[in-house]
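hi! just following up on the protien thing from before. the input was this:
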Amino acid sequence: MSVHVYTEWGKLKEVIVGNCINFNIDNFDDIFRYLYELKKTKITKPKLYATYVKERQEDLDNFAKILESFGVKVKRPEPLTKVKVLKTPFFTSMMNAVGSPRDMFFCIGNEIIETPPVDRNRYHESMLLYDVFLDYFKKGARWSAAPRPRLGSKNSHFIDWRKFKPSFEMSDKNNDYDIGFDAANCLKFGKDILMNIGNINHELGYFWLKTHLKDKFRIHPVTICNTHIDGMMMPIRKGVLLINPLLKSKIHLLPEALQKWKMIPTVSLKKCFNYPIGHVQLASFEGMNTNVFSIDENTVCVRDQAPIVGERLEKEGFKVISVQIRHSELFGGGPHCVTLDINREDSLDECF
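and the predicted 3d structure came back as:
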């Protein structure tokens, strides 16, 4: 089976589920702090207990089995057996596991796109999926990679996303900055792609993606969060959005047609787990509750720590699959992040 996916909700036939063996955040540098909004933390070397990694891996393995029970074919990245030091002409970092394949790889139509990483820690994640992608390529999928970023400190645009106003003009001001964006900045709506843009790196990424995809898709740029959009909203059926309560004040920023969709809010709570001193959380509780994953337009995987979200979806007629994915805030990934849908029964529809 090759690559075929146009939406976030078509009937799922094949998926990649992440591995977090040897997951690490040892490269706690200036870019990492900016990306995860950790500039004010006093922690210089964050901790990540092996127990948490083990529990997370157990949950990923179990999630894969749950998806297989629905007849979905599941593939996994190669486990990271040893953490290796990475060196480029511009930086030194550590290799990391592919715990959240959604972040770095964008599958659209019959194509796999490796997005240009904005985090040095994730520069070579694609090597752990090389054999999987090669197999899809042999079966007829397109396999592309955006230009590799330099990721020097001066090549990253450090700005509060709330103050960023895209100009959508190519000029000399862009020269110092890399083309850089995560695949998780984008959501698929058939003919339309919603893309969050929080800095100049993302803006250049928007230009690149628009040029690469040409006229087959319409890309709608928005600025509603710092980077990953799937913690702010998730389309779970044509015409229905699950939204983070923080999005309510930004609805007017969405494309006009999308503003007319039915919106189901998740739960606004501050935190669900107190990690020991020295640990840093890479995602919010609200974001992880919104980060659901659809098996089809009627069936949604929701974290077991978000029972109220599940109840709300059930009242709307959805079948809810409660999934244990512990430490989602600590690892920065919920059910949508830890999966990469490869093949769905859907088509290039007009959704807007």
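The chain has one domain: 11-345.
The helical segments are 30-35, 50-69, 130-138, 200-213, 256-259, 285-290, 307-315, 328-331.
cheers
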